[in-house]
Every structure is written in C-alpha cells, then in structure tokens.
Amino acid sequence: MFEMFDYDFMQRAFVAGLFIAALASISGNFVVLRRYSLMSETLAHSALVGVAVGLVAGYNPLWVAVGVAIGAAWLIEYLRSAFSLYSDAILAIILSGSLAIAVIIVSLGGAFNNSLFSYLFGSILSVTNEDVMTIVVVGSISLLFLLLFSKELYFIAYDEEVAKTSGIKVKFLNFLLVTVVAIIIALSIRVVGSLLIGALMVIPTVAALQYRVGFRNTMLISLFFAIFSVIFGMSLSYYYALPSGATIVLSIIVIFIISLVINKK
After folding, report:
1. What is the mean pLDDT of the chain?
2. Are 233 and 188 spatial neighbours (Cβ–Cβ below 8 Å)?
3. Out of 101, 122, 134, 247, which residue is the most buried by the measure of CB atoms under 10 Å away?
4. Could you tell me the pTM of the whole model?
5. From CA 236, how far away is CA 241, in angstroms rounded?
6. Which residue, 168, 132, 135, 143, is CA-closest to 153?
7. How far apart are CA 209 and CA 222, in angstroms?
8. Which of helix, strand or coil describes residue 239?
9. Nearest to residue 94, comparing CAs of 111, 71, 127, 122?
10. Which of 109-113, 125-129, 163-167 is predicted most confidently?
C-alpha cells in the first residue's frame, strides 16, 4: 500500500487532501447547522467561473477561483440580509447563474480541455507544490478564524435572533463564515473537483450528526470520517486509476449509509 508514496505527486495529493478534509469537515459543521448545505455547491459552481476565467485569460485558475468564490459568498449574504429573500432561493439563483457563466466563458474561450476536467471532478495528478503551499497557508489562516469564533458561530447557527440581542456581531460573523467557506471550497476543487466538493463538506457532518453526541464530538467524528474517506478514496484512485474526487465522495457516502443503519431506531 505504501508504495504509492514513492511518487511525489501522491505525496502532494495526500498532504493537500488531508488538509482539505480537515477544513471541509470543520467548516461543514457550521454550514449544515445553518441549513446552508446548498451553499457549498453554489460556491463550488461560482469558483468554476474563476477557473474558466483563469484558463481562458492565462492567469492562475486557483487564485481567480478564490476571488470569484469570495465575491459570490458576499453577494449571497448581502442579498439574504438586505432583501430578506429565502436563502435556498438565493443559492439556487447564484448556482444556476454561475454555471451558465462558466459554460459561456469556456465555450467562447475554447478552454474545455483536460485542465478544466480536472477542476470539475478532481485529479491527484494535477496537484502542484504551489497548490499544496497555497492550501496549507491560506487554509490554516481560514481554519484559525473558524476556531477562534467557533462558539459565536455555533450560537448564531442555533438562534440568530438571540445571538443579535446578546451583543454578538452577527452580520460580521456571517460574512466571515461565508468567506472562509468560499476560500476552502476554491482551494479544494483541485483535488476533489467543483462538482463534488459540496459532498465532502456536508456528508461527514450529516453522518456524524446521526450519533447525537453534542457539537464538539460531532465535529471530531465528522473530521475522522472526512480524513478516512480521503485516505481510502485516494488509495482507490491510485490503484484503480479512478478520479480522486469521485472515489472520495463514494467513500463518505458509504460511511453515511453505515451511520444511518447503526443509529436506526
């Protein structure tokens, strides 16, 4: 099994993948509790617009994806707070619009090639040293903010109105959360793919919630599930020449099904 670590690209992929698993699962707890599960899919499609722009214009797709995803996250939160629109409606509109824009850009630029395919479904072969450094450095900063404000974010997820009356800066923390989620998603699409990253962010948390063990333990269980699914999924990807993102997501779905069966009343 360990022979795959003889290759540099597998070492890079595992470092990036494990870091992404930690980031996605921890942030996913707040996303799911806020009933923002569709947020991950929406921002992933928005990040795809950045990838398309980067490929067509010749810029680094990863950085452009981060910028576009953050912009989309701020737009979603602004529309939700300023116009009192339903969250799921806003997410559906941004998701559809982002996908349409990405398709048009790619079509006009003729950039639908293997590079874009790797961003859609993830590819362990495409992870570079620069990608790993970016994921580790930027991801660490994002994770630090999440952990620093974890109590406040949990309070807001539990009851936003009570949090406001308690003096918590709800608006600032909401924007902080969506910004961090946008960054994590944009960083993750290189390994997991924009069409699949939402699953890695949401499913481990939903699986962990089946055990009904409190917020802190739920976060730890979801972290374990995400890390295990990345290790198992990427191993399958290497030995059977399968897309890394797909094998990771199928692994976590199996864990979810097992969790449902174990905890069935």
Report:
1. 87
2. no
3. 122
4. 0.89
5. 8
6. 168
7. 8
8. helix
9. 71
10. 163-167
